[in-house]
């Protein structure tokens, strides 16, 4: 049912934990399944994501997607991180079962939430970034559950 990559990131999640010196922290949840994901970004003065950590209270697919998402944004620019969509995360994981697609939306929105927080704290505007939702159930299609 799950790809080897999903199982690998679930069993050995990368970048788990918190960042004390984070300058962008984003938390999103899904009221329907009750899962919560938090991402911590340390963004340097050149707008490069120098370090990233996450904490996910959720299903295995949510753990795997958040782990992969942190790998995909680490060392990248803010603009590059914005391109890490849920589809990109799923592709990097060699796919997810249809009922688990919404879990990857949590990862995309957590990235956006952390970037949004960074922008608010530093009084900058990130082009193309829309205000993230705190409950991803507003965005996930009904048939995903
Ligand atoms: Fe909720 Fe996976 S079941 S994020």
Give the tags:
alpha+beta; three-stranded antiparallel β-sheet; 39% helix; globular; binds FE2/S2 (inorganic) cluster; 145 residues; 5 helices
Q: Name the helicity range.
A: 25-40%
Mean pLDDT: 95
The major β-sheet equals:
3 strands, antiparallel
Strand line-up of the largest beta sheet: 1-2-3
Distance between termini?
Answer: 16 Å
Shape: globular
Instruction: Give the ordered list of helices and strands.
Output: HEEEHHHH
Structural write-up:
With 145 residues, the chain is of the alpha+beta class. 39% of the residues lie in helices and 17% in strands. α2 crosses α4 (86-92). The protein is globular, with a radius of gyration of 14 Å. Bound molecules: FE2/S2 (inorganic) cluster.
Question: How is the secondary structure organized here?
Answer:
Elements: H1 4-11, E1 24-30, E2 35-43, E3 49-57, H2 60-73, H3 78-82, H4 86-92, H5 101-122
Antiparallel strand pairs: 1-2, 2-3
Helix pairs in contact: 1-2, 2-4, 2-5, 4-5
The protein binds FE2/S2 (inorganic) cluster (FES).
């Amino acid at each position: 049912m799950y790809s080897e990559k999903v199982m690998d990131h679930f069993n050995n999640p990368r970048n788990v934990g918190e960042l004390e010196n984070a300058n962008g922290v984003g938390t999103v949840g899904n009221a329907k399944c009750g899962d919560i994901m938090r991402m911590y970004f340390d963004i340097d003065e050149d707008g490069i994501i120098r370090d990233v950590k996450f904490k996910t209270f959720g299903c295995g697919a949510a753990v795997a997607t958040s782990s992969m998402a942190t790998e995909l944004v680490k060392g990248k620019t803010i603009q590059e991180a914005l391109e890490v969509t849920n589809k990109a995360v799923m592709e990097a994981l060699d796919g997810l079962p249809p009922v688990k697609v919404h879990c990857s939306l949590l990862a995309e929105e957590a990235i956006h939430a952390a970037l949004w927080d960074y922008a608010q704290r530093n009084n900058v505007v990130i082009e193309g970034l829309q205000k993230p939702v705190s409950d991803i159930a507003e965005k996930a299609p009904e048939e995903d559950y």
